[in-house]
Amino acid sequence: VGFFFILPALLMTSLIFLYPLIQAFDVSFQRHLLHKPHLNAYIGLENYLHLLISDEQFRQTMLNTATFVVATVLVVLVSGCLVAGLLARHQLRYKRSLVPDRYQIWFLLPMLMTPAVTGTIFRIFIWDYDFGLANWMLTNVGLSRVPWLIKPNTAMISVIITEVWSHVPLA
């Protein structure tokens, strides 16, 4: 009986989400020319074959995404386990954790910040070429500044570090 009360909401939600999904899937098998709509036609898998075979930018994007996901997941899992080991209360030998209780809340700070705030803070205060903390530390040790967010290799590293910092409390 309770199911019939939520049936209208389920139907509307299904229509709102499923119709655009099915429509987008249908359009992906078509050639759409907005300036010449009379030439629109079904072309089957041609769009997908073009992406997989001849689009170098698509392949590079997939490689970047795979690199980001694998690196982030591995580092978050390892560092999350290390942080959990530091914060855990060992019942056998120790009565308290290695990190005092009053400092443990600071490990949750990255989780409490929204991604937009995290990205902005890291872009301005950590990765900035002129005033960022990373380049300040490099110049203090006698090394040259690094354009963290300009070159593709260093940009990937800096985004991975930012993402890892943000997700370690969740691991």
Q: Which series of helices and strands comes N to C? A: HEEHHHHHHH
Spans of at least 5 consecutive residues with low confidence: none
Beta-strand residue percentage: under 5%
Please tell me what the overall shape is. flat
State the helical fraction: 55-70%
> Structural class of the helix and strand makeup?
mainly alpha
In short:
Helices cover 65% and strands 2% of the residues.
Q: How is this fold's topology laid out?
A:
Layout: H1 2-27, E1 30-31, E2 41-42, H2 46-54, H3 56-87, H4 101-104, H5 109-112, H6 115-126, H7 133-140, H8 152-167
Helix pairs in contact: 3-8
Folded structure, characterized:
With 171 residues, the chain is mostly helical. The two termini are 40 Å apart. The chain is built from eight helices and two strands, in the order H-E-E-H-H-H-H-H-H-H. The mean pLDDT is 88.
Keyphrases for this structure?
single chain; 171 residues; mainly alpha; two-stranded antiparallel sheet; 8 helices; 2 strands; flat
